[in-house]
From TrEMBL:
Residues 110-137 form a coiled coil. GO terms for molecular function: ATP binding; sequence-specific DNA binding. This is Sigma-54-dependent Fis family transcriptional regulator. Gene3D superfamilies: 1.10.8.60, Homeodomain-like, P-loop containing nucleotide triphosphate hydrolases, PAS domain. Keywords: ATP-binding, Coiled coil, DNA-binding, Nucleotide-binding, Transcription, Transcription regulation. GO terms for biological process: regulation of DNA-templated transcription. It comes from Salinicoccus roseus.
Length: 455
């Protein structure tokens, strides 16, 4: 009796599954961990032939018993959903095989991680191929996209770049307006200079000298040799005025004259200079706000906004979130010399659901944080949850909420689906095409669900 209880304690002592059979192939012991893995109870298997419980083709321990040998196997599929590392050993008493014992360690999570990593590697490989294809077109180098929205923007740029029309790029902060401005330059006159200037980063009293340059001795502290301004440096090339809505009002009058007459004076100069550049401007403000406000001249706006190219925010082009995420995951991991970690579906779903008010710039920052602070082979989703709390977002809102009272599963699933459909439709201004892409369903299916839930 003591030996029986001792064996029971020993086989349940470690976090391994143990099964012991006798020489007649009947089950003598079945550990609690074995119950969990195979979803069977001891009372239902003890004393039964093992071939009645498990298919004989999957029974490695029968080979140990019948062939008197130790067998080990890695990543053995024990059940349709469970992988184990398995070791089977014959039990020999007085030189005779009297039974066998098998030990299994559940490695399902490890297998899943490897599968996720393999999937990630495939995604990165596909993305790398796409990026190489994009980079073959040097004009659009660095613009990573998958969406039809950016494909449309690209077509507009290609058409506008073939002209000398002034172009105004609009879009929220962080969408990468300068990248698109460079694409315009590259398509038009890439052999010349691309000269960027951020109108919001220059103090008002220095703006004129920065834009037009100055002659020697023009003011106290000036370079004795004088200085070339951005307009002169952009001669024959592209002048990119980022955040042009921040240009001082007095400078707007002077710059309008430059656009009209193609002439200007350096600060402190008496010789009129020729202005020959392609103008590309950008702003994160709405054109209507610029027109209705008092800080920007409407006549200048009409002059710079001959062609308007709008870059949609990241939340309006969900197809790009995953592509951008994997691209920057790869490049930032390489930057820090850190082995790439995989992202599980939970984290990817959160990233796709989040509305990204800071657009691509915010996404890059989040990816960098994930790369730096994740320690295992998998990116730590808690890092993103902490980030959401920092910026005042409710991370729980990105997951289905549990009901407060008992309801049937079907009703809960229907309610969750209806809530998510409503949330997605509102997020994309009831744009059926965009919403169906995010939801991963066809437009007819989405219409049917809208009708079903009376949304």
């Amino acid at each position: 009796m003591f030996e029986k209880y001792l064996i029971e304690e020993l086989i349940n002592f470690h976090n391994h599954s143990f099964t012991i059979i006798d020489k007649h192939e009947r089950i003598l012991h079945f550990s609690r961990r074995a119950e969990e893995i195979f979803e069977l109870e001891q009372k239902d298997v003890i004393g039964r032939p093992i071939t009645e419980v498990f298919h004989k083709d999957k029974l490695i321990m029968l080979k140990s018993l019948r062939e008197n040998r130790t067998i080990e196997k890695k990543m053995h599929l024990a059940t349709p959903n469970v992988y184990v590392n398995i070791k089977s050993v014959p039990i020999i008493i007085d030189g005779k095989v009297e039974g066998a014992i098998v030990s299994e360690v559940n490695v399902t999570e490890e297998v899943k991680q490897k599968e996720e990593i393999k999937k990630l590697q495939g995604q990165v490989q596909t993305l790398s191929t796409n990026v190489r294809q994009l980079n073959n077109d040097e004009s659009f180098r660095g613009i990573i996209y998958k969406s039809s929205e950016i494909e449309s923007v690209k077509a507009q740029i290609q058409r506008a770049a073939s002209t000398q029309a002034n172009i105004l790029i609009t879009g929220e902060t962080g969408v990468g307006k300068e990248l698109f401005a460079r694409a315009i330059h590259n398509l038009g006159n890439k052999e010349k200079e691309f000269i960027p200037i951020n109108c919001g980063a220059i103090p008002g009293h220095l703006f004129e000298s920065e834009l037009f340059g100055y002659e020697k001795g023009a003011f106290t502290g000036a370079n004795r040799q004088g200085n070339k301004g951005k307009v002169e440096l952009a001669q024959g090339g592209t002048l990119f005025l980022d955040e042009i809505g921040e240009m001082p009002i007095d400078m707007q009058v002077k710059f309008l004259r430059v656009l009209q007459e193609k002439q200007y004076f350096k600060l402190g100069g008496t010789k009129e200079m020729n202005a020959d550049f392609r103008l590309v401007s950008a702003t994160n403000k709405k054109i209507s706000d610029l027109l209705n406000g008092d800080d920007f001249r409407s006549d200048l706006l009409y002059r710079i906004n001959v062609v308007n190219i709008h870059i949609p925010p990241l939340r309006k082009r969900p197809d790009d979130v995953e592509s951008l995420f994997f691209y920057y995951l790869y490049s930032i991991s390489e930057k820090y010399g850190i082995e790439m970690r995989y992202a599980d579906q939970g984290l990817l779903q959160q990233l796709k659901t989040y509305h990204w008010p800071g657009n691509v710039r915010e996404l890059i920052n989040v990816v960098e944080r994930l790369v730096i602070f994740s320690n295992d082979t998998k990116l730590n989703g808690e890092i993103f949850t902490q980030y959401l709390e920092e910026v005042g977002e409710d991370s729980a809102a990105l997951y289905p909420q549990l009901p407060q009272e008992d309801i049937q599963l079907r009703d809960f699933v229907d309610q969750t689906e209806a809530d998510y459909l409503k949330h997605t439709l509102e997020k994309y201004d009831n744009n059926i095409e965009q919403a169906s892409k995010v939801l991963g369903i066809s437009r007819p299916t989405l219409y049917a669900k809208i009708k079903k839930y009376e949304l």
